[in-house]
User: Which sequence fits this backbone?
């Protein structure tokens, strides 16, 4: 599979990336097709927390990832696109590692991770980034707005990712470091970004 580094991508490259990844997920209805330049839109989260994928599910069908009994790993929902499953599996590999500023930036495989290093690892596992990005770079990654399956929230100081409705973050209750965090957090001051079609 070809790996894309989608920084400020245009519609032609986005279409090629979608074809290469063979994504079946519907595109988000709220995303701006722009590249984050003039006129870019900011989508604050509702006060109730992080958005969930809206896939037209049947009553009782789980459409969000769930944290497994071990409290460390996450399980993707049935029917999630393969790229989303790979992102969750990658995040599971580093969940529970310690926090270290700059961790995961010189190389993907590291002994500890900071916020953007952890996000980079998960997205690299899905083939959505070729090299680790810092939080400022994530403010320009992909397209503006929340995605249906994967959304990165970034500002100059912090980044976290929501995959299939579950937050993967280095900050929150408990020890610092990359963890699946069931509690919601505010997205005020963060720029939401998504990969086209996700």
Assistant:
């Amino acid at each position: 599979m070809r790996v894309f580094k989608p920084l400020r991508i245009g519609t032609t490259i986005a279409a090629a990336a979608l074809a290469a990844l063979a994504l079946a997920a519907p595109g988000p209805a709220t995303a701006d097709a722009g590249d984050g330049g003039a006129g870019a839109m900011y989508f604050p989260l509702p006060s109730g927390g992080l958005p969930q994928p809206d896939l037209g599910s049947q009553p009782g069908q789980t459409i969000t990832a769930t944290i497994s009994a071990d409290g460390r790993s996450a399980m993707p929902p049935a029917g999630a696109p393969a790229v989303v499953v790979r992102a969750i599996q990658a995040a599971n590999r580093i969940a529970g590692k310690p926090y270290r500023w700059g961790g995961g930036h010189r190389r993907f495989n590291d002994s500890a991770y900071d916020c953007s290093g952890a996000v980079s690892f998960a997205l690299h596992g899905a083939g959505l980034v070729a090299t680790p990005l810092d939080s400022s770079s994530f403010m320009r990654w992909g397209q503006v707005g929340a995605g249906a399956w994967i959304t990165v929230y970034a500002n100059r100081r912090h980044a976290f990712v929501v995959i299939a409705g579950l937050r993967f973050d280095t900050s929150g209750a408990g020890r610092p470091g990359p963890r699946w965090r069931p509690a919601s957090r505010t997205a005020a001051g963060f720029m939401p970004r998504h990969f086209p079609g996700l």
Notes: The chain has one domain: 11-194. Residues 82-94 form the longest helix (13 residues). DSSP finds four helices and eight strands in the chain. Residues 7 and 140 are 6 Å apart (CA to CA).
